[in-house]
Amino acid sequence: MGCCTGRCTLIFLCSLQLLAALERQIFDFLGFQWAPILGNFLQIIVVILGLFGTIQFRPRYIVVYTVWTALWVTWNVFIICFYLEVGGLSKETDLMTFNISMHRSWWREHGPGCIRRVVRPSAPGVLEDYSYVSVTGCIIDFQYLEVIHSAIQILLSLIGFVYACYVISIFMDEEDSFDFIGGLDTYSYRQPPQEHVELKPVKPVGRSK
């Protein structure tokens, strides 16, 4: 019963993590955030692997999921520090795009309540296709939305890590018990109990004439 409860809970958590990673991947693609896109892709692959291992009773796959979960938590902690500008980090840098573009988070211009206006400069000598983007009226700033996304990922990952360790321990215990029972059965079939039989000489019977 405990195994079923642990497996079902882990399957549910993996499904939630998969949905959360897909949702985050969509908005990171819209914002051209290449570093998070790569991380989300690996997260999706490993969560599917952990989900498969949980359903098919493959503890090795769940071990891979557990190790990756620790790395995933570390990555999301870094993202939180990046957007809150902790430790000398700055959200205005191009770190999330691998310094190949100047794109920022999609939520910066499309957050809840944000009004986006394109302002074209009227000063002489400025290119006609050059424009400024003004964003006003946001209910919550984009960096806090990114922090909320990362916090949700950390929460799901920590709970999934605990249940993954629990399911792995149950699977290993069941494998040990099955090996023990199978070993006794195999020994009983291969080594039948030896019985001491007393042999007596048999006299030949002569033919009647």
Automatic annotation (TrEMBL):
The chain crosses the membrane at residues 34-55, 62-86, 151-171. Residues 1-21 form the signal peptide. One of its GO terms (cellular component) is plasma membrane. It is found in: Cell membrane. Its main location: membrane. InterPro entries: Na/K-Atpase_Interacting. It is a multi-pass membrane protein. Belongs to the NKAIN family. This is Sodium/potassium-transporting ATPase subunit beta-1-interacting protein. It comes from Ficedula albicollis.
